[in-house]
Amino acid sequence: MCGRYVRRSDKQKIAEHFHANPSPRDLPMPAADYNVAPTTHQPIIRQSRETGERELILARWGLIPFFTKDLKEIKGLSTINARAETIATSRTWREPMKKRRCLIPVNAFYEWPKEGKPPKRPYAFELSSGNLFAFAGIWDAWKDGEGHWLQSYAIVTTDANELMARIHPRMPVILHSRDYDRWLNREETEQLPLDLLRPFESEAMEMREANPKVNNVRNTGPELLEKAESAAESGQLPL
Question: Could you tell me which residues belong to the region Disordered (predicted)?
Fold first, then answer.
């Protein structure tokens, strides 16, 4: 799974890296966040229906299906992650998977050990190159009773690679840049790009202990990527 990630790149950097146009052009971008949490609005890249070009928009993390009648319907349900194994068949995911796929800009992400008792020590994962990268995502648009639209997204997850498996059995799908266009293509075809939903190469990733302060969503600074040296610094008892 993936419940927190890092986005330190600004709008210009993201737009340049992914060759995307902000939509609208004066799109307000949240400040760099080293502890991106569900329900916040974050940048995603999708293919424009009008031009076919890549566009950068803001959307809510935690997908709200288009068929939702009331937000109370999804209260208590986790829609931040979509499992690759059921993404083409699940009622929640199958329509977005067909024609509403997106890229989610990421600098790093966190994971906690699957086993063990809390408090669990978080680990940070990033590319060995240090470059900005993209999770595979799907998005949807929901209209409330007053006619207001809310766009939202989910991160696609798959089996963990060898590196991730040391901590957790699952990981977010990381896409290679060569596959971006294929993933974003909005034309409905019988052949969905399910083959892209595979573990990323372990040798191209790095893992290190992160600061336990990441457990609190109110902490959003760069110190979260650094291992705390003491219990006082982390705000928790040592494990």
Answer: 207-239
